[in-house]
Automatic annotation (TrEMBL):
GO terms for biological process: D-xylose transmembrane transport. Residues 51-308 form the Periplasmic binding protein domain. Keywords: Signal. Residues 1-22 form the signal peptide. This is D-xylose ABC transporter substrate-binding protein. Pfam families: Peripla_BP_4. GO terms for cellular component: outer membrane-bounded periplasmic space. InterPro entries: Bact_Solute-Bind_Prot2, Peripla_BP_I, SBP_2_dom, XylF. It comes from Mesobacillus subterraneus. It is found in: Cell envelope. CDD domains: PBP1_ABC_xylose_binding. GO terms for molecular function: monosaccharide binding.
Amino acid sequence: MVTKLRKVGLLNLIFLLMLLAACEEGVSPVQKENKESENERVIDHEDKLKIGFSMDTLEEERWPRDREFFKEAVESLGAEVVIREAKGDDALQIVQAETLISEGVDLLVIVPHNAEAVATIINKAHSAGIKVISYDRLVKNSSVDLYISFDNELVGELQAQAITKLVPKGKYAYIGGANTDNNAHLLKKGVFNVLQPFIDRGDIQIVYDQWTENWTPENAHANMEAALAINHNEIDAVIAANDGTAGGVIKALEAQGLAEKIPVAGQDADLAAAQRIVQGTQALTIYKPIKTLAYEAARAAIKMAKGETITTNRKMNNGKLEIPSLLLAPIAVDKNNMDDTIIADGFHLREEVYGK
Ligand code: BGC
């Protein structure tokens, strides 16, 4: 009996010693596991939030600004950002976004090249528990969590309001953006909201109306050459979807000796466009303060990554859902308010615009 008791005592002692050996600084394995996961949580909490930014292109003058301001904004809010540029390639944009997701970004911000093609990314991000913000361009037919942009329909309306003041009657050419970009459709809608009553009255005729593949100035130039040829140069006004395409249009007008004679509208406040405006070959641009967009997007990204709610001001239908949206106000700029807007904001320097 005594031997038996001694045996049990010995076994208990061995068990106790094994337990102590497995313990670190008097902490049991179970406690140790809890402590480790607590540490992990603490580390997670202390780790910087990581925001992924998937960009279509850096081609137009505005996009490097978007990239720099977004980076600056995210970093100023104490988070880090990983940026990828897809060079206008849908397949590459999808692969890059997938990589950002697998690298563990806390939130994904995307400027889609093709509004429809990247919808698949949203599902993948959601499966990984990551929310997605559509930046400047809306991702169509998807459950994207937030859309943040300028009011693109209003951009088109402002262009058409300004041009119809200059040319209330006559033949109009519309040089659209890329058919694959939802913004191109919103801009066109805005333009025709304003033009339609003029068209209905018979004051304005649309003598040319084309999309510009990939928004390139070269394609816009070819479009404008075609518009002039088909209409034997009888065109009174041109609305181009951005300043890059307006540049292509003006080059085609110059070749026919028509620059300065035919008003052209663009958007983006590119430096070349601001220069053309003060020189007289472009009538107006639409200025969109990119810094505000980038900072708003960065603030929203960090809030959403932390699970906080965002204040929005609109809902935009993307073909599947009404997407909560934050739309900022664009500003029409011609030679009369150039100094008070683009230059006053420091978007371009006065000497860059006027060349003196
Ligand atoms: C943007 C414009 C830009 C164009 C071409 C549009 O979606 O809103 O600002 O000029 O894309 O990149």
